[in-house]
Design brief:
49% of the residues lie in helices and 12% in strands. The longest helix has 23 residues. It is of the alpha/beta class.
């Protein structure tokens, strides 16, 4: 079973076990779309960043279901292809978008990356104009020269032009740290993912509380 399915199943079981009062708000959905750093390469489903965010959501008593739609090894083109299907399958209220690391590591076309990210956001808003988006930026190391400089300009530019919230680089100080990564010194371990969740949660919690004030979606005809 994939991490996405396991997290969703856990919340469905929780919902079935806890009676819902008539005045309780209908659950909303947070979708995490990304690659290895969302899917949680090398850790258990409960140790991934989305799972640790789900724990915080539950502790705060917020009416949100968390879906982990991470796919290890995926680049922005593949994420764009999946996005349309995901937005059709789920009514997404909040999107956490963490895409592009594999493009950068492979030194893929920067213009293609920017196009793909913009169209993921476009499709998100087309599926739900009230969808709130948290953009997790990606950075390439300075050793990659001119490519890194151009790459690192993409995320703030898109966030500014599309008017979405951004966290510049949640992996700052994690990659390369022996106590926060797996043996490859790149992918976070449980402690690394916890630190990522700690960094994401304050901004995301604010977005969730704002989303709760949004009116419910209109029934589809």
């Amino acid at each position: 079973m994939t991490p996405m399915k396991k997290i969703t199943l856990a919340f469905l079981l929780l919902a079935a076990a806890v009676p819902v009062r008539a005045d309780d708000p209908a659950p909303k959905t947070i979708l995490f779309l990304g690659d290895t750093f969302v899917a949680g390469y090398g850790v258990t489903p409960s140790e991934t960043m989305p799972a640790q965010i789900a724990d915080r959501v539950a502790a705060a008593g917020l009416p949100f279901t968390v879906i982990n739609a991470g796919e290890s090894g995926e680049d922005s083109a593949a994420a764009l292809q999946r996005a349309q299907e995901l937005f059709q399958q789920h009514h997404v209220d909040v999107l956490v978008l963490f895409v592009g690391a594999n493009d950068g590591l492979r030194q893929a076309s920067i213009s293609d990356l920017e196009h793909n990210l913009v169209y993921i956001i476009y499709r998100a808003r087309k599926s739900n104009p009230r969808m709130r988006i948290l953009f997790l930026g990606v950075r390439m190391p300075a050793e990659m020269g001119a490519y890194a400089r151009r790459f690192n300009e993409i995320y703030p530019r898109i966030a500014y032009r599309r008017r979405i919230a951004i966290l510049p680089w949640v992996l700052e100080g994690i990659m390369g740290e022996l106590d926060l990564t797996l043996a490859d010194h790149m992918h976070p371990n449980e402690r690394g993912f916890k630190l990522m969740a700690d960094r994401v949660w304050p901004g995301l919690e604010s977005i969730l509380r704002k989303s709760m004030a949004d009116p419910p979606p209109k029934p589809k005809k």
